[in-house]
Each structure stands twice: as C-alpha cells, then as structure tokens.
C-alpha cells in the first residue's frame, strides 16, 4: 500500500486566513477594473467633451444655435453641420486650426472674443461660405501676416461684419490692409488704429471695400487726422471716441454720406481744431453727433453754435466737464439746430441750465448738480416746448419751483428717480394725458393729503402713472392714509407689487397683502389713539384741577391785581395818598350802627374822614371796583364783624381785598381793624377770621355809657 502524504495540514485558522485574502484580492481586482474602465471611458469621451459644456437651442426645424461661453475650453469643438450661431466667448482658445470649422457651411455668426487667440491657421475659415459676422476682439492677435495669413478671409465671401479690435496691446502697426482686400461684402469694420509716420492709416487698398459704411476704432494712438478717410469714401458711421486728436486737417471729415460721428477725445483748447471740424461737419448730412469722454467745456461751445444750420437730429455731449449752459450771451451763446430732437447732457457737472430747446423732444440731464438751480426754475426759454421726455435723475434734487413743468404741456415721461425728494412740492396740474412720472428711489415715505388728492385727480382724468419703486414707505399710523391711497390707485402705480414699507419695530414687508396690512394698522392705531386720547384727557384734567387749585388759592390776590391794574390805567387818580382815614365794611343788617354811631363818633370832631359805600361810592362803577378803590384810598379798613357779615359775599370780598392790600401793596402792614359788633363763638368764625384774630388784636363793641367812650377812643387810636 502506498500512503499519500500532504506537505502540511490545513487547520481551521489557516483556512479562514486564506479565504480573507482571496476576498481582498477580488475586491482589489474589481476596483482596478473600475478605475481602468473609467479612464478608458474618459479617454473615449475626450473628443466630444466640450459638447457637454455647451447649450443648444434649436431654431426652426433644422437650424441650431450653440452657446459655449464660459466653458473653460482650450480648443474649438467639433459640431454638427446645421449650426448657424456659435458663441465661444470667455474661454482659453489659443488657435483656430485649419478645417476645424469646415463642416459648418450654414454658420452665419461666430464669436471667439475674450479668448487667448494668437494664431489663425491659413485654412481656418475654409467652408464658412455663409458666415456674415465674425468677432475676434479682446484676444492676443498681432496685426501681421503671421497671425492673419494672406488670404485668410478669402473663403468668407458673405462676411459683412468684422470685429478685430482690442487685441495684442503690444501692437504698433496698423492692420495689414492686403488681408482685408478679399472682404468685398464688408459693411462694418471694428479695429485698432495706430500712429503711422510713413503710410496712411487707411491706405488705397481700402478702396476695394466699396460696401464699407461703418467704422469703429478700438485702441487708438493716432493723434493727427490728415485726409485719414480719403480711401473710405462710402463711410456713413465713424466712431473715433477712443482716439486723442490734437491736429486736424480741414477736409478730413468732408464727406457727404456721413450721418453718424462720435468725436475723438481731445483738449478742446485748440480753437483752430474746432473751427475746422465745424466747417467740415456743415458740409455733411450728419444727423447724430457724439462727444463723450472729452474735456469739452462751455467755451468751446462758441464754435458749435455754427451747427445751428446743420441737420443734426441727435446730440450727445455726455461724460464731459460742462458746468453751465445759459443761453443769455454769457459767456457764450449755446444754440441748437431746429432739427434737433434728442439732447443728452448727462454725466456732466452742470449747475445751471437755461437754453432754447426749440424742437427737442428728449432731454437727458441725468447725473449733474442741478438740484439747487431747479429750486428756482427749469429754464426752457421757448414758450411752446415740444419736450416729451426729460431725465433729471441723480441731480441731488430736494425741492422744486411750482412752475418747473408749467410750459411743458407735451411731456409724457418725467424721470426724477435717485434724488433726495422728501416730499412733492411742485405744480403737477400741467401734466398732460398718459404721462409717466418716475419717483423711484427718492426717499419718499408718504404724500401729504393735498398731493394725494391732486395725483388722484390726474390719474383718473388724465391717465397719469407713477413709479414709486425703491422707496421705503411707513407702515405706521400716520401713513395709513397714504397706504389706502396706494391701494385705491394701484392701477396707476408702476410695479406696485414690489413696493415695501417699514413697521415701527424696523421690520420690512412687501405690500402684496396691502388690505390686510391696512386693516391691521387701523386696529392697532385705533387702540393707540384711544389710549393717547385717554392719556391726553387725564393730563388736561390734571392740569385743569391744578390750575383751579392755584386760582382758588390766589383768587383774592388775582382779583386785587386785576382791579389794581384797572385803577392804574384809569384817568381818575387821587392826588392825595389817602382820601379817607378809614373804609367801613359792614352788612346791610348793621347799617344803622354805621350811619348813626360810627359816623357821629368818628367824624363828629372833624379829625377823621370815613368812606361809607352808601355815601361815597362812585355811581355807575362796578361794586367790586368801588370796593378795591375805597380800600386802596383809605388808610385803614374797619370790618364790623357780625353773623350777617360772614353771610354777605361783598363783606367777605371787602375783608379779603383789605387783607391782600396790606400784604402786597403796603409791605405787610396791618390795614385791617376788626370790630366785633356781636358776641360770636370762636367755632362760628370762618377760618380766615380765626387766623387773623390769632395774629392780630381786635376790638369788642361795648354798649354801656363808659364802655362806649373807651371803645370809640380805641377805634380812633387804631385808625390814626
């Protein structure tokens, strides 16, 4: 028998370890296969990778528009034959290879601007027989036959628009004109222009471009215009605003076909330059003149008054340094052609504007400093203005003259946005039918009731529309009427669904549910108003009570001062300091005692003179006035105290007036003599009498023979 032996015995642990290793190997193998598959798939998709970054728009049944802008491309993708529009802006394309666009026979517009183009291969545009618009601006292309080989544009037999401006900033030579000679259908050309000492900027080769009508200059170092456009006789449109010209040869712009001119920037101190330019412009059919980003000033306007006989329809003098335009001969007269319809003076530094607009229909004064001037008037001299649109935005306007738009009966659009208008203060009654008034971004929080009423009438009668966007309204009690007005006139408010308002707590909300907001405010404000009214009533009542207390407390002093003033302004003033030695204050019940006893015993010897109201009061005078006069004109006041004295109003009046006279008029001297005619218990005395007898002496009347003598003696001593 043969025995079979194994090299080793597999234990349970060894079996488990081997199984684990096998699983790991399988996982690693699967992972490696997945990675290699992904790499292969990625390599397979690489040629068409750019397609996934582009947006496709089908036009009609067969045509296709493709937008591959901002796609991080370094090469032009291969596309279908039926593409008619291709946008490759803002990528990193450096070269246009030969044949890459060859199958795009239907392509009509190609935009490869804002890339890194530095070279175009000779047959790059082969097959583009339908291309009409080619844009290559803002790249790194040099103006030579290396970047633009001869014959490069020959396949572009339909091209009518070419834009190659703002390319390699190191360029110093003008574009090779021989390269352009093949573009016989070209109508629009945009390119950079550089100073040339030996040759013309636009040489004779340009004569072959018989259809070229529009020229726009990008980068420009040319500073002289000397027969510059001789070989461009068919130009209608010239934009040289990026050039800085200091020398101009008469006749350079003498072109009958010229209708649009954007003037080059310059220092407008060269008056010969201005004269020559104006001379040439008057011989053209110019309808649009643009003078942007120059140092144009009012002094140079002197020469432009000769344009009054031109056929200009649009004049743009924006982004300059104009500070004042006053058509009053100081310092120059600024005249406008009768054909002018659009005048743009925006982005200047205008502080005054007064000119005859003649037939101007659109006036832009945007972004100036006309706010203070407009507080007086908007000076448009012609009585019947044809003005239909005016832009006064960004002018630091706060207030208006009431007559600012009075003569502008044809206005259809008034832009006052982006000013600091806190309230409307101008006359809107002259606004015509269907006018739009733009008051957006003007810090308006609400309208006064008068203006809401005026605006409502104009809205319903004349169709006025208001734009109040970007103003923060007030969701407060004082703004409820304005919010109700917005709700009732929402059909006449532009973009009213975007209006916002701020609550007392600072929170902001859109006026989408305006009726609910108004209702909530009315409820809250009603409670607040009730609370405010209640508090006001309580405060007023408290003041009234306190005032009444003070009046009551000082009533006798007030009465005394009143009658004292009357006495001072009266014509009846006594020459003597005191007319009487004593004034007798008594009740009617004690009249016999006064008439029979007092007069006999006190006046009998002729030493004393008494004032008795039955005898000495002035007839026709008020009783209270007679009383105060008698007290003031008497050295003393004798009060005959009895129970009936306290019950008499005039007796107590006489007592208090005498007391006040002593305190405030006679430096707290005692002018009162209290004579108790009856025996009265202290508890029956008024408090003012009790206080007086505690501080002062008084005299008791005694009705016996001896007592009477002593009594009258004491009274006389008190009077003297």
Automatic annotation (TrEMBL):
GO molecular function: signaling receptor activity
Keyword NAD (UniProt): no
Domain of life: Eukaryota
GO CC aspect terms: plasma membrane
One of the GO BP terms on file: signal transduction
Keyword annotations: Glycoprotein, Leucine-rich repeat, Membrane, Receptor, Repeat, Signal, Transmembrane, Transmembrane helix
Entry keyword Signal: yes
Membrane topology: Single-pass membrane protein
InterPro entries listed in its UniProt record: Leu-rich_rpt, Leu-rich_rpt_typical-subtyp, LRR_dom_sf, TIR_dom, Toll_tir_struct_dom_sf
Annotated ranges, domain TIR: 578-719
Subcellular location(s) of the protein: Membrane
Family of the protein in this entry: Belongs to the Toll-like receptor family.
Protein name: TIR domain-containing protein
Organism annotation: Mytilus coruscus
């Amino acid at each position: 028998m043969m025995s079979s032996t194994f090299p080793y015995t597999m234990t349970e642990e060894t079996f488990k370890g081997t199984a684990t290793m096998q699983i790991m190997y399988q996982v690693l193998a699967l992972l490696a296969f997945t990675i290699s598959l992904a790499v292969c798939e990625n390599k397979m998709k690489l040629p068409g990778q750019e397609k996934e970054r582009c947006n496709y728009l089908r036009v009609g049944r067969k045509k296709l528009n493709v937008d591959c802008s901002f796609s991080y491309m370094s090469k032009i993708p291969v596309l279908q034959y039926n593409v008619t529009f291709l946008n490759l802006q803002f990528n990193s394309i450096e070269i246009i290879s030969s044949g890459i666009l060859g199958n795009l026979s239907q392509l009509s517009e190609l935009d490869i601007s804002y890339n890194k183009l530095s070279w175009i291969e000779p047959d790059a545009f082969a097959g583009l027989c339908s291309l009409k618009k080619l844009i290559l601006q803002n790249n790194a292309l040099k103006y030579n036959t290396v970047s633009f080989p001869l014959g490069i544009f020959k396949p572009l037999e339909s091209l009518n628009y070419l834009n190659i401006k703002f390319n390699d900033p190191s360029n110093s030579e003008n574009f090779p004109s021989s390269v352009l000679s093949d573009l016989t259908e070209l109508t629009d050309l945009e390119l950079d222009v550089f100073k040339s000492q030996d040759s013309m900027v636009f040489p004779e080769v340009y004569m072959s471009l018989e259809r070229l009508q529009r020229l726009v200059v990008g980068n420009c170092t040319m500073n002289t215009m000397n027969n510059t456009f001789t070989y461009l006789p068919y130009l209608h449109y010239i934009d040289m605003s990026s050039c800085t010209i200091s020398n101009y040869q008469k006749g350079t712009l003498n072109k009958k076909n010229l209708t649009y001119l954007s003037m080059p920037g310059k220092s407008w101190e060269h008056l010969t330059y201005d004269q020559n330019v104006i001379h040439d412009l008057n011989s053209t059919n110019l309808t649009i003149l643009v003078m942007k980003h120059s140092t144009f000033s009012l002094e140079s306007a002197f020469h432009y008054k000769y344009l009054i006989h031109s056929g200009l329809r649009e004049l743009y003098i924006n982004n300059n340094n104009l500070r004042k335009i006053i058509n009053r001969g100081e310092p120059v007269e600024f005249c406008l052609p009768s054909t002018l319809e659009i005048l743009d003076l925006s982005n200047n530094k205008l502080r005054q504007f007064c000119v005859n607009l003649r037939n101007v229909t659109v006036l832009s004064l945007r972004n100036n400093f006309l706010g203070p001037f407009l507080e007086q008037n908007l000076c448009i001299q012609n009585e019947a203005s044809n003005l239909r649109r005016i832009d006064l935005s960004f002018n630091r306007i706060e207030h208006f003259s009431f007559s600012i738009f009075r003569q502008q009966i044809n206005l259809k659009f008034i832009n006052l946005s982006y000013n600091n208008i806190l309230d409307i203060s101008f006359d809107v009654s002259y606004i015509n039918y269907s006018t739009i008034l733009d008051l957006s971004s003007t810090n308006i929080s609400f309208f006064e009731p008068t203006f809401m009423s005026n605006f409502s009438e104009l809205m319903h009668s004349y169709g006025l529309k208001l734009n109040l966007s970007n103003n923060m309204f007030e969701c407060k009690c004082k703004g409820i009427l304005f919010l109700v007005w917005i709700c009732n006139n929402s059909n006449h408010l532009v973009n009213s669904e975007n209006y916002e308002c701020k609550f007392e707590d600072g929170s902001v909300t859109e006026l989408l549910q305006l009726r609910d907001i108004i209702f909530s405010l009315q409820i809250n404000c009603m409670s607040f108003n009730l609370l405010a009214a209640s508090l006001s009533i309580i405060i007023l009542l408290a003041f009234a009570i306190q005032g009444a207390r003070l009046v009551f407390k000082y009533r006798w002093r007030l009465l005394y001062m009143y009658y004292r003033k009357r006495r001072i302004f009266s014509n009846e003033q006594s020459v003597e300091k005191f007319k009487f030695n004593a004034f007798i204050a008594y009740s009617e019940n004690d009249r016999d005692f006064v008439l029979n006893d007092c007069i006999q015993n006190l006046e009998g010897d002729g030493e004393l003179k008494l004032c008795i109201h039955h005898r000495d009061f002035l007839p026709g005078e008020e009783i209270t006035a007679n009383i105060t006069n008698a007290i003031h004109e008497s050295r003393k006041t004798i009060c005959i105290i009895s129970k009936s004295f306290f019950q008499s109003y005039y007796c107590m009046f006489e007592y208090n007036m005498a007391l006040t006279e002593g305190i405030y008029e006679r430096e707290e001297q005692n002018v009162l003599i209290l004579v108790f005619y009856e025996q009265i218990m202290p508890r029956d005395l008024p408090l003012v009498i009790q206080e007086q007898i505690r501080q002062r002496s008084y005299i008791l009347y005694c009705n016996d023979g001896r007592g009477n003598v002593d009594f009258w003696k004491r009274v006389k001593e008190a009077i003297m």
